[in-house]
Design brief:
Helix content is 41%, strand content 26%. It is α+β, with helices and mostly antiparallel strands. The strands form two sheets. A four-stranded antiparallel β-sheet has the order 1-2-4-3. Helix 1 runs parallel beside helix 5.
Length: 218
């Protein structure tokens, strides 16, 4: 199957919220192949309005996302064909950690890259108003400036994302390490506007925050 922008966006979402797993099921004595997305409950709408229709369109699956008892959103598909499709693109099985990256087949094509970046930012990116604290324990003082942040455990992946943004002439701050994760931010309001125009968001959660914060920003 040819890699389309929609499937590249799913790959980006998989980089953020997803995993591939292969395990032996004792009850029927055979291996099972699973693709799963897990996120906060406000990602349920994204799973149901985007991921589910794409998987139905390309693979015919009718599985639906759901909310777990712990109030998290989950969407999982047990299907060897789907598993092998994303595995063959380079997605690792099991623990991701530093084994994830944006495949060359995506990074070399600007439209596929755009979609992939949107997928990973929708699932792992965050938006907030810039704030400062005068001293430890002091209440935060919020400004009217937006910040887009990417924070990941994988150095390889966050470097790929930052480099991918440069393909669209979007500048961002240097990558730093915060405890056991890597982080970079887009703090220039002009660069944020460029990001919204070039990459954008699909999730209702992010879009709502952008609208609400934009009314408070410049």
């Amino acid at each position: 199957m040819d890699l389309t922008p929609e499937l590249a966006e799913v790959y980006g979402a998989l980089l953020g919220d997803g995993c591939l797993s292969k395990y032996f099921a004792n009850y029927d004595k055979r291996f099972r192949y699973e693709l799963a997305f897990t996120g906060a409950n406000d990602e349920y709408e994204y799973y149901s309005s985007f991921l589910q229709p794409v998987f139905h369109k390309y693979f015919g699956t009718k599985r639906k996302p759901f909310i777990r008892k712990d109030n998290s959103a989950r969407y999982h598909i047990k299907n060897k064909r789907i598993f092998e499709y994303f595995f063959n693109l380079g997605f690792p099985v099991g623990e991701k950690q530093n084994n994830v990256f944006i495949p060359k087949i995506i990074s070399k094509d600007k439209e596929l890259l755009r979609s992939c970046l949107r997928g990973v930012w929708d699932t792992d990116g965050s938006i907030y108003l810039r704030y400062s604290k005068r001293y430890s324990g002091h209440a935060r003082h919020y400004s009217n400036l937006l910040v887009l942040q990417m924070k990941l455990f994988s150095l390889n992946l966050i470097q790929d994302i930052k480099e991918g943004l440069t393909r669209f002439s979007i500048s961002s701050n240097n990558i730093t390490k915060a405890e056991n994760q890597y982080v970079f931010r887009i703090t220039s309001q002009n660069e944020i506007l460029k990001f919204l125009n070039e990459i954008g968001f699909r999730t209702k959660h992010h879009l709502t925050r952008i609208v609400r914060f934009s009314k408070m920003s410049n």
